[in-house]
Amino acid sequence: MAETIDIQLKKGVLGLCVLALLARNESYAYEIASTLSDAIGMGEGTIYPLMRRMQSDGLVDTRLVESSSGPSRKYYRLTEAGHAALAAQAAEWRGFARSVDALLDAAPPEPQPAHTETQEG
Length: 121
Prior knowledge:
Blueprint: H1 2-24, E1 27-28, H2 29-40, H3 47-56, E2 60-67, E3 70-78, H4 80-106
Helix pairs in contact: 1-4
């Protein structure tokens, strides 16, 4: 079950994480995927469809940069709408995380194993 919640959590925050990375610096998809793989264990294959969707939604702009060691790279950078989406999603995430933390902190402690006493005699 832990794997299921882990996968679902990663999918749920992937867009937010990409927006946060792009707020720091423009980047290309493979670099974004590599950073996310190191940070949260997210696979590369999920990035490309997300980047296309973010571009069609107007959250990112792209530009091609010539590379001396291969094909041109498509760099992504946040648009004004992307910055606004990041601010809104970050606020939602922080509120959600606080609520989950409060529920976890209020949970009863794990039951302790019962001690069996032996009678000496």
